[in-house]
Structures are given as structure tokens and as C-alpha cells.
Amino acid sequence: MKQSLSEEEHKKAREAIMIHVHKVVPYSLMIAVASGLYLFSQVFGEISDEGMSYFQIVLSIKVFLGLWLGFRGTS
Q1: At residue 54, does pLDDT exceed 80?
Q2: Domain ranges for the chain
Q3: Residue 25 to residues 6, 45, 60, 67, 68: CA-CA distances in angstroms?
Q4: Is it the case that residue 11 has pLDDT exceeding 80?
């Protein structure tokens, strides 16, 4: 995009795009977090006496990062 626009046009176009991105992304993140929490509750399974499985550990990390991004995106 920068190659076909002048510096000022590029700056205006980028600002216009970022306004829309800032309106949409927080809601998309919250939907992703909500669906992730639902899936987490459905797929996580029981923790055995031996501890969490590799899948449960990876899923826990993913949930933590998703929640962090979701809360960070809405504040």
C-alpha cells in the first residue's frame, strides 16, 4: 500500500484502518475467549493423580494467554 500512495495518503489510510481495527478487535477477542473457556470446560478432562497431561498443560497455557489478551484488548 505504501508503494502506491504518497506519504500523507498512506498515513491517512493507515489511521482510517486502525480506527476500525480498534472498534472490532476487542469484541472479537472476547468472543474467542468466551468460546475458548467453553471448550476448556468441555475438553479439559479430569486431572489424574500423576498430574496434568501434556495436552492439559498446553491448554492451560493457551487459556491463560487468551484471557490475558482478551482483558488487555478491552481495557
Answers
A1: yes
A2: 25-74
A3: 28, 31, 23, 14, 14
A4: yes
